Amino acid sequence: MMSLRKGKQPRNYVEYLSQTFKITLLGAMVLTVVFTLNQLNFSQCFPIRTVRVYGIYHVNHQEVQRLLTPLVSRGFFTINVEYIRDQLLQMPWISDLYVRRVWPDQVEITIVEKKPAAKWNGKSLLSEAGELFIPKQEINQQDLPQFTGPEGQQIFMLRYFHNMNRLLWPLHVKISYLELTPFFTWKLTLNNGITMQIGHKDILTRLSHFVKVYPKIVGTHPLGVDYIDLRYSNGMAVRWKKEAIATT
Questions:
Q1: Same domain, yes or no, for 170 and 237?
Q2: Which residue, of 21, 129, 222, 233, has the greatest Cβ tally within 10 A?
């Protein structure tokens, strides 16, 4: 029995050496491949030849090109997609974006721009998502309403703005100016020129009542109205322009 065990030991030792040699050889091959890959210039072997950018409306094309040029000069495998995304997100107009590589030599970028909802305190733009931003270049802002309010209240004002406009829809008018005072009273101007004081209580209820009586009180003469006060609990006050009174 002892002689049999002694006979197996050399074979086990040879098998052990063989396995060790194979593992060492495989490790050396992996290191060689890694070293070789590190020495290759992928920017020369797989250069980016085409960059497609989608979704640009307000973002400055030249600024995007200037920012992207050095970032896509690397090769297909070494281009840093997340870094490109982080850099483009620094641009004021960009809300979100998606970057992807397309084999063998393309990069596609889809930009989601901020949608301006209003001008905020005469110096910023307010997006539909409630973000304040200042674009580097002026845009046509004639159709944007103007908001004036305390700092930090832009989302609160935007919510009321949409609710008020929904109530005003049957009159075919919109809010062109909305103000929330430091005392949290509301003032607004419609795009037909009518200015209104609403106060600080039951805002939507008072405005809804105004919409119901508008045809009887204002009718087809909105230009003759100088001012409407909705702060009364059981009614409203209308001040007419002098020329409108003289005409009637």
A1: yes
A2: 222
